[in-house]
Protein 1
Amino acid sequence: MEADYRSRFRNWERVATVRNSPVRELAGDGELLFTPELVPAMAHPILAQATPEIREAVLVHRLYEYLKFTIDLEQSAVIPVTGHISRGMSGLDLPEGMLLDAFKIVTDEAWHAQFTYELLRDVRNRTRIAPALPDAPTFTGALTRIHEELPSEIRGLDEILFAIVSETLISSLLDELPQDTRLPATVREMVADHAADEAKHHAYFSALLRYLWPAMTRRERELAGPYIPQLIFAFLEPDYPSAALGLRAAGLAGEDVEQIMSDVYGRDRIVADVRRGAAPTIQYFVEAGALEHGATLEAFQESGLIA
Ligand SMILES: [Fe+2]
Ligand SMILES: [Fe+2]
């Protein structure tokens, strides 16, 4: 088994951003705080005609949403699961190297959450725009619902599966924000730092799935498989309440917000976006044999994730 795992963390000491990147303070350069083309609402006629102040504020609120999502993801979903793995409590018979690497991932993620929070604070201080965020992002509520609904014999598998889902997706934001030269260098560098670490995490969690799935009993696979699409949607579906709060706080009228929300977030478009974003993860689950069970295949089809 040991031979199957090729660590991507051997040079962690030299390349991990927590060991090598400076604390980045937000400097006064860059006009936009988020890439407008990545915010579908920005192309809506209502926002296209809005004042520059409103349009800029929408981008600031979108940045806040992204930063808060990142903090919550690291702290509530990835760190707890990875901490369990590092202490040999995953219930899996993993190579020792994977336990050591789990410690490194916990350190990386704690650093990501920290610098993301620091950036959020810096943006708030610089723009003097107060964040307008829900108490908890929608994905944490979705995960709680799934956890409670899960048959008791597999409860807990949802947490490790969600960590695998969220860590093996290629986040388009991690890729695209650093390339947008209209953004402050600090924002771009921070996101680039995050992306550099996540490339290694991606390899780790895809390997983890290769250990997890065969270690599950047939019954566990049949029970858990149909929940995978829900976990994927929990991670990738837009956070509608948060988006609406941001638009409202940017200065749009209530009816305009409703109009934009219903025009921009059509179901077909959402499903197509989620399917595109989830492609690598879906491929790993296919390779692991997860879709060989009828109910799981059906759940993937019903969700629109596969044809
Ligand atoms: Fe991270
Ligand atoms: Fe990660």
Protein 2
Amino acid sequence: MTPEARAAADAALAAAGADHIPVLCDEVLDALAPCDGDVILDGTFGAGGYSRAILAAADCRVIGLDRDPDALAEAAVWTPVYQDRLSLKQGTFGMMDDVMKDGPDVTGIVLDIGVSSMQLDRPRRGFSFLRDGPLDMRMAQSGVSAAELVNAADESVLADIFFQYGEERRSRALARAVVDARAAAPIETTGALAAIIEGVSPSKRPGQAHPATRVFQALRIAVNDELGELARGLAAAERMLGDGGRLVVVTFHSLEDRVVKRFFQQRSKHGGAGVSRYAPDTQDGTAPSFDMISRKAVTAGEEELTRNPRARSAKLRAGRRTAAPAHPPVMTGLGLPGLVISGSSR
Ligand SMILES: C[S@@+](CC[C@H](N)C(=O)[O-])C[C@H]1O[C@@H](n2cnc3c(N)ncnc32)[C@H](O)[C@@H]1O
């Protein structure tokens, strides 16, 4: 690298660090405990906040994976600073073992589930009801968009999506409003969808969330098959990690946290401390494939909450891989809503 290119990459790195505050970063480092020589997979690279913190904490290597090509393109200006310690790959963490099949063995995996600020803040990505743009919401920028889903799905499917993925109590009335509106004209923008929902919702009281919040969350989860990805990603991580490898997962809402909690419950020692030594090892009697690093979910402390209110709903769960074989990748018992939406993007 020329001195000029190095100076430009250093400046871009400083700007990236100043721009983005990763949630629960210290707690992620504590749970992941990176050591010299480790190879860590950051399965949700985003703005690279965790990756940079991990690279600063030990003389290790990081592989940054993201399904969003924009996330990787934006990082290309500063990643050269780390030379061969940081490499980037595009793909989904649900297929991380496939993406990594020719790569080195990984000793730790971190997942920070959800949407990035960059995705939310750009109107053209169509994630936010606060910024008008095309109704898109596809993280990978391929597959079925939110507009296609909203304009084509049966009313009952839309109602199920709003209820199951948005926990929206008025799901049926809102699905009806969407279907009535699209009969007049296709719903193409985030602003148009937000106006339809607002038009049939009681007026918002001070301090209350926008009436379209849950519908937008639900559509985003459906378009990106986020819960299916999470379940596949956890199972892939279990297959990839060897004895002592660490899996750290940060989630932002209860549907995701339930999947992570149940995954670790199924795979760690049943009953915790004090249980009879004759009790089965795990709920189904197989050898535990994870030891829990902390028994309860870790949440943000007061200091972080003051700095970054977005951390309020964040929960971290982490486990250390044992030498036992991986469990079969069964999706039952993880609390996944039984919704099948054909054509969701990968
Ligand atoms: C909350 S952001 C991660 C922020 C990151 N930890 C940081 O510190 O900058 C989530 C990122 O994960 C990506 N993502 C979400 N689901 C994914 C999946 N199934 N596979 C790969 N990347 C995914 C999104 O595109 C987004 O860039």
